[in-house]
Amino acid sequence: MAAIRLTKEFSFEMAHTLAGYDGPCREIHGHSYKLFVTVKGEPVADAAEPKYGMVMDFGELKRIVGRLIVDRYDHALVMRATADNGELIRTLRGNYAKIEVVDYQPTCENMVARFAAAIEKELPAGVELFSIRLHETATSFAEWFRSDNR
């Protein structure tokens, strides 16, 4: 059977700040993110199987990415933990529910790599993550490809 790629698109709104950055993105600001997740596999060949003809149920991919990425980051403020911002983080968490503190600079590049690592662990047997594209704006995006990361 042929190898097939499936892609599902996701959207979420997220704010972030780039601690220590020397440009305007040092300030808290937000983006309307578009996330494209592409998986690869062979369609199920057994006509007796409920997923006959499918590489993966789009609904299952939606549940995985929804739980790991969209539910966590939609309408969240993402910040890198630094030696200087502990008090700010405590204050924000005291007032807002969706403050995500991470151990990396929350750039588009770093987030796409982290998202790939999380999604890969959850895919069913026989399905591999092929690529992820994360648009931070309509014209700016970062991409991760399995073939570049073996």
UniProtKB/TrEMBL annotation:
The keyword Cell membrane does not apply. Pfam families: PTPS. Its cofactor is Zn(2+). Pathway: Purine metabolism; 7-cyano-7-deazaguanine biosynthesis. It comes from the Bacteria. It is an enzyme of class 4 (lyase). Its EC number is 4.1.2.50. Keywords: Lyase, Metal-binding, Zinc. It catalyses: 7,8-dihydroneopterin 3'-triphosphate + H2O = 6-carboxy-5,6,7,8-tetrahydropterin + triphosphate + acetaldehyde + 2 H(+). SUPFAM superfamilies: Tetrahydrobiopterin biosynthesis enzymes-like (SSF55620). Belongs to the PTPS family. QueD subfamily. This is 6-carboxy-5,6,7,8-tetrahydropterin synthase. It comes from Alistipes hominis.
